[in-house]
Amino acid sequence: MAQETPAGDLRLANLTKTFGPFTAVDDLSLTIAQGSFFALLGASGCGKTTTLRMIAGLEEPTSGQVLLGDRDIAGLRPYKRPVNTVFQSYALFPHLDIFENVAFGLRRRGIRSVDSQVREMLSLVQLDGYERRRPTQLSGGQQQRVALARALINHPQVLLLDEPLGALDLKLRRQMQIELKRIQTEVGITFVHVTHDQEEAMTMADTVAVMNAGRIEQLGAPADIYEFPATAFVANFLGQSNLIAGEVSGSNGDDTLVTARGARFSVPSARARADEGPVYLGVRPEKLHLAGAAVQVPAGSQHLEGTISDASYVGVSTQYLLRTSWGTELSVFVANSGTQQRFAVGERAVAYWDPRHAFLLGRRADEDDRTTPVLDQPVGASS
Amino acid sequence: MSRVSRWLAQHWVMGVALLVLGYLFLPIAVVAALSFNRPSSRLSYDFNEFTLDNWRNPCATSDMCDAVLRSAQIGFLATVAATALGTLMAFALVRHRFRGRSGLNVLIFLPMATPELVMGTSLLALFVAGGVPLGFWTIVIAHVMFCLSFVVVTVKARLAGMDRRLEEAAMDLYASEWQTFRRITLPLVLPGIVAAALLAFSLSFDDFIITNFNSGTTVTFPMYVWGAAQRGIPPQVNVIGTAMFAIALLLVLATMLRGRRARRSAITAAVPAPRAASRS
Amino acid sequence: MSILAHVPAGSGQPASPPQTARSARYRFLPYLLLLPGAAWLLLFFAVPLVQLASASLYDPEGSLSTGYALTWAFGNYPTALQQYWPQFSRSFLYAGMALVLALLMGYPLAYAIAQKAGRWKNLLLVCVVAPMFTSFLVRTLAWKTILSDNGWLVGLLRDVHLLGPDGRLLATPIAVVLGLTYNFLPFLVLPLYASLERLDYRLLEAASDLYASPLKTFRRVTLPLSMPGLIAGTLLFFIPATGDYINAELLGTPNQYMIGNVIDSAFLVRLDYPQGAALSFLLMSAILAVVFVYLRRAGTEDVL
Q1: What range(s) does the ABC transmembrane type-1 domain occupy (chain C) (predicted)?
Q2: What is the CATH number of the domain that holds B74?
């Protein structure tokens, strides 16, 4: 990093990148507060990595600005930017040992005495004693930490992480998520983290931006996005949702009224993204409860009837599919708390929910119900 | 009985392979044996009597040693030139887009698919038509030409297999274009360049057909052997042949052993140090 | 993402002035890098071929001392072919026979190294290349010793009556074909090995699990999957073998001469350039034709 100041927020202004006829990033504008842990979440090909590479300087924007504080860095070569990257699959230099990998950035900036800094950094990532090893002699998790140390030692104003945990197995990934969060808190540098793993994004980031087709669909704190998604894409990309096609039929005080499949429902107006025309009535599977008959549904709840078409026992919960009279299968997660009634496939059942847990999203008139597959995986997770 | 036939069914391929390897090594063994031979007559190719004279006195026929030296000089010059030109071409081909790429690829591929005889005669036709005197330098020119394609292909393969992200990472870590090339690209491509140079040298050193057409009166080692085959081969030729074989083989085996040792230490190192293991 | 523009080239629409200058500078770089090598190949490979073509059309009455005139003497071709048809066809016959032998030896060898050698793989691979560490000519001369009339091999073959009491190996077509096979075998084995090495052993297990006999497994799985290496290896073997004349010269007699011997003497002994050039061109065209037909046929899905 050339100068310590002027630090400041990272701002992307109307950033666009096209590859021939393909628009990878489409007029993207966003502000990432200094010192925050920011996640860009999206399926592969959504433009998140291209965005990251434009911040790093590895890709030239077709148009738009990358501002760090008040300075536009979009035209600078990568080595002139106070920005460092942890690359996907790490890109450790195979011909240099761990010490020289970590010292690389310092040496290129002409710093002579790197010894103490490198050792300090290696101990921050808990790799003391590994100085003379080669990258190929380390495990995946260790390589990942070397990549992190190699970037952090330069005290960049912004640290970019490109799917940094993608190559690790599940257990190690969870450990590293906590580790990364700890280190970010410790060093206080702005982290911009690109991932397709919704759980990873939610665990670590203060702010998550969900990207789709080169644009940001929604930006906010993980819990806010999850509890009140802005679009059908977000509702299904971040966790699962049951989206039932309906029409707004009016309002009643603080509630918006919806007609769907001949039945009437209500949603608090504060949780409605649309107040007229075609909408989706959305409820998360874990917000649905099951009862044997309509009379057992508590007062104040709303419900739909159907037949249990599938029940998968997954340990912490049982995941049911409830086939409605018009054929849509709703997913319902029932916690295995031991107090819940069990249902068998073929049984009639009623799914009910508290209207405060539902949400309304705008819908194109030609779109039908959208529910997610039973598998507990976000769309595009296998990229 | 069925155990025998099952064993045969599983191992006959290996058996055939070893026989074929024997076939490949048979002449080498003969060359080595003949290097210790005192031939009964100049034109005899049979083993007569054991002697160490040939090894003590490899340059007894001084023409031969001159020819070996000349081949080494030509090989050196051709290797340096072909490696330099070929490496530049490989970089351009892997790293840049430009017009005429497919035409160029054909131009690089063709010399490898053309019989040496045709390349040798066509160069001769050119040199004669251009009034270029044949000799040392026309051999060098010819050798650079046919080594070039092999260098391009070898370096290109290494370069194409290199992860571009390493260079991006270096640039991200404050290395300018030149520093990135010097610190990352070059060290990583170097094994490919070295392999290409070794290949070029061995091709040049051993070339007979193309050299034969373009050498004039200059005598390289293969040319010397060719000429001597008519008059009777001095046994020292077999000394050179054996020595070449032994040196090259030792070099290759040494590199292999080094590689194996590095791999073995990689395996031991993969077991993490106890302290780090307890923490991570 | 595969569409990443490469960094040093920095093409595309530049976002700011300094990068425009960069792009301009880097646009010429590839041509600069290519220039010396490409020029060398043009000047000393392509131009000579043109020169050879024109030399083949020189007036056959000319000579090196009196000079040649380009008279578009197409008659050089039929004349040369007529005169040297035996050597010409012999080149392809010997190279073809050597190829068959080499395939019979090389395929098991490549297969064994790729699939059966385990930790000895690299060492065996070195063994395939190692014979090439000695000079081509010295190796060929060693065959002269092995095949000589009073050598052990001929003695053995005479004892078991595979050869008559006066039977010879040296100075026969057998010696030449054996020499060709020997000298170019590694060129066949290496690409074949590369193909077979990539062959997943589990595919063979899957095939035998699906009731394929070993022979069927070979025909239906191993052979088709090794096709790229087989094609490359065959060409790398066949092209130099056809153009070779060292084996015919050292292990054979004029009765075994191949077209290379004729071309060699045309250029270096008889100094009949038009004829030598015409024969060179004929050889190249014939090889190209064989290669082309072969590639066309091998290109089809089911080779057998």
Answers
A1: 88-294
A2: 1.10.3720.10
pLDDT at A372 (0 to 100): 61
Could you give the CA distance from residue A296 to residue A337 in angstroms, rounded to a whole number?
Answer: 19
- Contact of A2 with A68, CB cutoff 8 Å: no
Average pLDDT of chain A, as a whole number:
88
| Residue B23 within any structural domain of the chain | no
Give me the domain span that covers residue B70. Answer: 62-234
Residue B42 covered by a domain: no
Q: Is the pLDDT of residue A283 over 90?
A: yes
Interface subset of B 38-97, CB within 8 angstroms of C: 45-47, 85-86, 88-89, 91-93, 95-97
Contact B67, B208 (CB under 8 A): no
| C150 at B interface, C-beta within 8 A | yes
Kind and range of the H or E run holding A124: helix A115-124
pLDDT at A383 over 50: no
pLDDT of C14 strictly over 50? no
Mean pLDDT, chain B, integer:
86
Q: Are C278 and C199 in contact (CB under 8 A)?
A: no
Decide if A208 contacts A219 (C-beta within 8 A): yes
Domain-wise residue ranges, chain C:
84-298
Give the Cα separation of A376 and A370 in Å (integer).
16
Note whether A10-226 and A241-371 share their fold.
Answer: no
Rg (CA), chain C: 26
Write down the domain spans for chain A: 10-226, 241-371
Asked which of A330-334, B58-62, B248-252, C208-212 is least confident by mean pLDDT, the reply is C208-212
Residues A367, A368, A372, A373: is their CA dihedral positive or negative? Answer: negative
The answer to whether residue B56 scores a pLDDT higher than 90 is no
Q: C12 and A49 in contact by Cβ < 8 A?
A: no
Give the total number of structural domains in chain B: 1
Reported as a pLDDT band with limits 50, 70 and 90, residue B264 is low
Question: What's residue C140's pLDDT?
Answer: 92
Cα(B154)–Cα(B161) distance, rounded to whole angstroms?
11
Least confident of A25-39, A171-185, B169-183: A171-185
| A210 to chain C, closest Cα gap in Å | 19
For residue B174, the distance in angstroms to the closest alpha carbon of chain C comes to 14
Class of domain A10-226: alpha beta
pLDDT of res. C24: 61
Residue-wise pLDDT tens digits, A298-350? 988 999 999 999 999 988 899 999 999 888 899 999 998 888 788 999 999 99
Residues C203-248 pLDDT 10s = 877 877 787 787 888 888 888 888 888 998 999 999 999 999 999 9
Chain B contacts of A142, Cβ < 8 Å?
272, 276, 280
Spatial distance between the Cα atoms of A124 and A130, rounded to a whole number of angstroms: 13
Residue B273 lies in a domain: no
| φ/ψ of residue A278, rounded to 5 | -70, 135
- List the subunits that have 3+ CB pairs under 8 angstroms with C: A, B
**Residues C72, C56: contact at Cβ < 8 Å?**
no
B152 CB-near residues (< 8 Å, 6+ apart): B86, B89, B90, B93, B108, C37
- List the structure tokens of A360: 């309304």
Cβ distance of B229 and C240 shorter than 8 Å: no
The architecture in CATH of the region C84-298 reads Orthogonal Bundle (1.10)
Q: Give dist(CA B119, CA C260) in Å, integer.
A: 12
Rounded CA separation B222/B71 (Å): 8
For domain A241-371, give the CATH number: 2.40.50.100
